[in-house]
Amino acid sequence: MIKESGAFELIYNAVKKIPRGKVATYGQIALLAGNPRWSRVVGYALHVNPDPQNIPCYRVVNRFGEPSRSFAFGGFDTQAALLESEGVIVSDGRVDLEAYGWDGR
User: Fold this and answer.
1) What pairing do the DSSP bridges indicate for beta strands 94-95 and 90-91?
2) Residues 6 or more apart from 11 whose CB is under 8 A from it?
3) Strand partners, 61
4) How many CB atoms lie within 10 A of CB 76?
5) DSSP result, 23-55
6) Per residue in 5-57, pLDDT tens?
7) What positions carry a catalytic annotation?
8) Is residue 81 classed as helix, strand or coil in its secondary structure?
9) Could you tell me if 15 and 59 are in contact, meaning their C-beta atoms sit under 8 angstroms apart?
10) Is the pLDDT confidence value at 1 over 50?
């Protein structure tokens, strides 16, 4: 069993790999971190992100491409603005995962 801090490190390492101008889903990050059932753990880890300058948690959206309504660092509008500053279009409250989804490579 992985301790919480170990799980968070795996999650943060996966999030650091998301390229500028792309997004990943909570489920995708959970899978990359080693446990596809960790979607909620991903959300919690990103909520307590200790290093937002280097761990771009704003690049993580839900399975529908929606930014978080409770984005830890300023709410939905802040997350959408950060994504848009990288060229990711947030339209009608969603990111087009076909266009901006990261393939994990």
Assistant:
1) antiparallel
2) 29, 30, 33, 38, 41, 42, 45, 46
3) 25
4) 15
5) BEEHHHHHHHHT-TT-HHHHHHHHHT-S-TTTS
6) 689 999 999 999 999 999 999 999 999 999 999 999 999 999 899 998 999 99
7) 57
8) helix
9) yes
10) no
